[in-house]
């Protein structure tokens, strides 16, 4: 099985690498009692995705990267991480 690819996202003029969201990430958010569909959930999942390749980022710093101007982009990137879609919007087969 091939390694999941990293996605890049540009936030506030800087490019960050997003690691795929894993089952362990989803368990972590569930154990924290945070709903994925809330603003806290979006920040939590984005932080989990970004911190794997940018370990210096805190949840608060990640929250500062997200604005009302880019929240739809962030949401789309997170949904892509959850569904494992490739760059053409297709889900790869194993």
| Biggest sheet details | 2 strands, antiparallel
| Side-by-side strand order of the widest sheet | 1-2
Taking Cα atoms only, what radius of gyration do you get, to the nearest Å?
13 Å
- By DSSP, the count of extended strands is 2
Helix-strand pattern, N to C? Answer: EEHHHH
Classify the helix fraction into a percent range: 40-55%
Sheet-strand content, in percent, reads 5-15%
**Termini gap:** 7 Å
Envelope shape: globular
> How many helical elements?
4
Roughly what is the average pLDDT, rounded to an integer?
Answer: 85
Low-confidence stretches: 89-94
Number of domains: 1
* Helix/sheet category: mainly alpha
Structure commentary:
- The protein has a two-stranded antiparallel ribbon with strand order 1-2.
- It is globular.
- The longest helix has 13 residues.
- Helix 2 crosses helix 3.
- Strand 1 and strand 2 form a beta hairpin.
- It has one domain.
- The protein is mostly helical.
- The protein has four helices and two strands.
- The C terminus is likely disordered.
- The termini are close together.
């Amino acid at each position: 099985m091939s390694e999941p690819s990293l996605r890049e996202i540009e936030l506030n003029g800087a490019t960050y690498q997003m690691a795929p969201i894993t089952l362990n990430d989803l368990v972590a958010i569930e154990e924290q009692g945070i709903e994925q569909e809330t603003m806290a959930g979006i920040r939590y999942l984005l932080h989990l995705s970004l911190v794997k390749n940018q370990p210096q980022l805190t949840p608060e710093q990640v929250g500062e990267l997200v604005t009302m101007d880019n929240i739809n982009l962030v949401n789309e990137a997170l949904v892509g991480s959850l569904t494992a879609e490739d760059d053409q919007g297709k889900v790869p087969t194993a």
